[in-house]
Design brief:
The chain has 373 residues and is an alpha/beta fold. It is built from eight helices and 13 strands.
Length: 373
Amino acid sequence: MSKSTIVLLMSLTFAGLLLFIACEGDDGAATYTDSDDESGGGNRPPSGDSDSDSDVDSDTDSDSDSDSDFDSDDDICDEQDFSIEFKKARVMILLDNSGSMTEDAGGSTKEVQAVSAITLMVNDPINEDKEFGLDIFPDGSGGFLNSGCGTNGAPPVPIADANAQNIINYLNNSYNPDGATPLLAGLKYYATQANATSAGLYGDNTSGYIVVVSDGSDTCYSGFNIVQQLRATTTELVNNLGIRSFAIGFGSGVSGDELNAIAQNGGTSILTYLQADNETQLQDAFEQIASDIVSCRFEIDEHEEEIDPDEVNFYFNDSEDPVPMDPNNQNGWNWVDDENTTMEFFGEYCDDLKEGEVESVSATFGCPTIVID
């Protein structure tokens, strides 16, 4: 065999090896590269170039094309940043409007103390990440004979952004407790009818909450097993509508069993009702609930390019490791709407958001989504 023939065979063998490596790199594996600004997240391959920067581009390295990955075309994993918008939590305060709220609770009436505590909560800068509304039970609906137990009217203050002054104005000018305590009916309204009048609390891209404040047991429900009914209604709100519930008992006349039926099935981390015997304790209860109400949902902003939902990853702070997608909504992130425009973090990742340990959330597309093991 001639020397030229040997050289030719060696060249073909080396070319074949390069072709094999290139084909192996194009199989859709989760290989992360950043764009030219070198700021993307993920675990990226070593540079392999001979210039002084840290990317793998077409200047002085062995990449033969003009994109930012380390191959001869542009189809491996061209990761790009895109923006996401934090979704505010939406909170309906469901306030007891029964006549017993006019009773004294240590220097002033429960009515006066509730107005003061709610005013402080909706004005607190820490709650700027929330949209508030106010509803009362009873609300005077149900006709002349049943107005003391009616709950079918629209909320006097629907949920809205920057709504504090509207709530305060209502409490100071129109909140006049009178009637019985239709606790179950007040909650059932949100499970059966309220979508038409309280639309801000509903929707796949909404984090909706109800905060029940009651100073007594239900005096309107005439059936049996009210605790079971409250439990079922609260569970329905969570499972069917995605609305979570908290319960506060104000004063000595509350039913712990009834309020715990709400708290234990409300889908939050506070699994018992919060007892408040005075204004200070009521403020403390609101603060505890507010700290638990932090939205873990984000909405994808419009983007000039179509974003493939199977090639999206999210990152906390400056981590190169993406938050894994968890189809079971336990510990990761997942889409919450069919259009793949809103996502939510779950488990320890949501906890980190609530505890203020996350300073930034970033998102990229163009690389296969990392799914939890």
